[in-house]
Amino acid sequence: KTSALLNDTVKILAVMVNFQEDKDAATFGIGKFGSIYSSDYGSTILDPLPHDQKYFEDHLEFVKNYFHRNSNDNVVFEYTVLPDTFSVSQTMRNYSPENNSDDFTPLGNFASEVWTIASDMYPSFNFSDYNLFVIFHAGVGRDITLPGSLGNEKDLPSVYLSEKTLINIFGAGFDGFPVDGQFKITNTMIMPETESRELSTLTGTFLFEITINGLLVASVASHLGLPDLFNTETGLSAIGRFGLMDGQSIFAYNGTYPPEPSAWEKIYLGWAEPVSITPGDYDISLVTKLAASLSDTVILKVPLNSSEYYLIENRNRDANKDGSTVHYKIGDVVYTKTFVSDTTGYRSFDTDELAGVIIDVDEFDWAMPGSGILIWHIDENVIDENFASNTINNDKNRRGVNLKEADGIPDIGETFYTIFGDEVIGEGTQEDLWYQSNPAVLYENRFAKDTRPNTLTNTGANSLITISDFSDIENRMSFKITYGDSIIKPLFTTTLETNSRIKDLNYLEKGGLSSLLIYSQFVLRTDSSLIIFDVDGNLKNVYNLITDHKPAMALIYNIDYLIQPVDSLLYVIVQNGASTIFIRPGEIISTSPVVLKTLTGDSQIVFGTEKGKVFVYTPGTPVE
To answer: H or E stretch including 213?
Structure first.
């Protein structure tokens, strides 16, 4: 998958829209720009008034800087904010969808009316010069709920209405909102003027400052093709503050700036290329992006099977080792402030030291909760199955993009409560990264089949991978990768183009593989068949092994065995296909086979059936 806009220019056209005035307790403000503040908070807050053309241009300048630096110039970003505000015909609640509803028809109607008015106001304006269209509206977004909030249930949610979404709203005949007599707009981002809002407490009213930079970046990323990586059903976090498309990242540092996209997000958008390895033993060195030269590896891809793999990256909050520098704008003046460390007034949840509109930071990854090695478990089957419905990470037990939390406690997205009753969502900690001195109780500085977390695949199969000996946090970090264990060891790998031993490639090419993992002469193919070659590379046999259970491969008494259950039959295929033993338990086999060593050193093949029985077979003994 690649973005449709790769190596293209994102050209934004934005308008500023009021509603009809109201006194609705279910919304913030009265439907007009600047009406959400009951007091004069001056210019030293985040998102200070006035919320005018220059203010929104400053926010879009941040978006421009984010994409310029993180896309390696693959995305060029330009923007125009039309100077005049105008009002739609109704109050805000009339354009607000019901809570927890996926019917965005009211928002579609809002967009339709806005672009009709804009077209009438600017009859000679060339809308066709732009490809992404934004409505900045008065009020806040229905995107967060805070204790002490008044109303909010009829505010507008912040969304990106893609062409597909608009077709779902208006029907297959929808081909865009007509403007200037000839061009049609086929997408719309709906954004609030700010996310700051007044909260009521026992001691009075105070302003909770939270801005829209993160929301804008994530919405543009949706336009570029990125799916959401949080749980889109519950809204809970799934990747925490380690990537872009998650609420905890969107509102990191109170929305002022998110971290860089994760390895998978960058690869998906075409902004990065991983270095892939084949089975073997490796000493790996990974360098943070900011410190990397052209020859350095920044993202490593470690295949597990035909659809699953690890993406490993080295992320550092302060790769430049000079603290965090923030550039912000108040009026026409740009200010710069540097923080040498996390401190009061400058943390993810506390930004009292910031003011104005944040237009840039020197390192976006300062928004992460820690530094070190990140290991992402990617399952392309899950992504493919759930991409269209935007539910890639909704199943916390089988996520398409899953962070292997190094502390062994998968608590990203879990809900916790403080002693004061405040709700806290797990968004990741320093201990979720891999590095030698990680103090987590369960941390072993090793990632293997028997650690927590483990290197098993999503089907529960042993991936044969161990990653160990992580160095401590630095811009260049090292670790070891080994394949195989005491029972199973891959002997060599090959590719179709270079393999001179296998003579009948036709059988391989039908499986759609460009590279193959070969255990002696056993070759597993993606179409669930098993191909066997003799030692000279001649085709010996082909078995159709259509099953949900993974095979076991083992070296027993210096002889290669491949063991594969299919329904009520267990294939035990001996080295080079010289013989095949068929074990018939008389019941459907319900588990993948395992190979165990007894105290006497013998090997036993163990498997279970759907009736709860466990069968044991010792190679070399007659089958009863």
So the answer is: helix 213-224
